[in-house]
Amino acid sequence: MTKRICVVTGTRAEYGLLHRLLLILKNDPQIELQLVVTGSHLSPSHGMTINEIESDGFVPVAKLPIDLSNDSKLATVKAMTSVTSQIAETLSGLTPDVVVLLGDRYEILATAQAALILNIPVAHIHGGELTSGAFDDSIRHAVTKMSSLHFVAAQEYARRVVQLGEQPSSVFNVGSLGVENALASKLIDKSDLSAELNVELKNPILLVTYHPTTRSTMSVTEEIDQVLSALENFSSCTIVFTGVNADPGNAEVSSQITKFVQRDPKLRSLYTSLGQNKYLSLLNLCDAVVGNSSSGIIEAPAFGKPTVNIGSRQDGRLRANSIIDVGVAKQEIQTAIETALSPNWRERCAETVSSYKWSNTAQLIADTLKNAELNLHKTFFDIT
Hints:
Blueprint: E1 3-9, H1 12-26, E2 31-38, H2 50-55, E3 62-64, H3 73-94, E4 98-102, H4 106-117, E5 122-125, H5 136-145, E6 149-152, H6 155-163, E7 171-173, H7 177-184, H8 190-197, E8 205-209, H9 220-231, E9 238-242, H10 250-262, E10 268-271, H11 276-285, E11 288-291, E12 307-310, E13 323-326, H12 330-340, H13 343-350, H14 361-371
């Protein structure tokens, strides 16, 4: 009997993590893959990454646009209501056996709410993690409580999901999709990547991703000003920025980065969306990762690359010894980048062991989705 598995994606980062799993589900004759695309995938200002999805050979069963033209917190809440309404209509028509969600975006929360009321089981990837500097932290735990299956990236996260009252038998420590993708992908060499990006990749290379911190006492303007002021001191570095996500405050961050890049376009560049393979190839080639993206915590150590992690956005995630945590202050950031580029720190990073196992992650998730008996009537697991 064919199993209908609906996967919902709303961002480029999330799709990149899901890509290998989607291929497995698509090619399994016992599975009917229902791919639903929403969020920034359908936004021109965020790169229209629906084009990347379709060029990869996936045919979405639904495209659910939401208004991302206003990046205020109120507008974000209104976007959530739009997603909830649209995804409810879509899921009601598709009648999947299970909905697969990854992470902690507000589109994911909206989908989980709709599935809960429609009595459709949810399988959640990357639960149990902490990111106390962003409201994503609360969203992730809320989605856990609305899910029937849990695929976590480390044993500590499995323990935390059980601590939230989920039955141990529903929690699977499968490792990280991101690390599996990073180490199993066929990467682009430096000359070819330079040609594809139309930029000279002159070492040292800094790969920078900075998103708004949604639980910060500083304004987004103050934050990005401190980051860019620190980067001004690395005038000999090639600095490549990846696009900002759709969190509240993203327009200001993106605007300031654009102005920074325009002041030295030979050595600085900004890409709204690199795509998974180009991003991982650049991660493999760069000398240091700078910013507050989860990829600096999860994928970068797997390549033995130093990370300068700025601010509180990723507070709570498991750390490798290649990561330098700093506050959002110019001098701290500058000193940390200097350390990251030093021979001693690069030697340390070469011996880094990832905090996340990665072998066969996507296949383990696919096999469990196909074979698991899903129970909507959950009972709270009390730890004695």
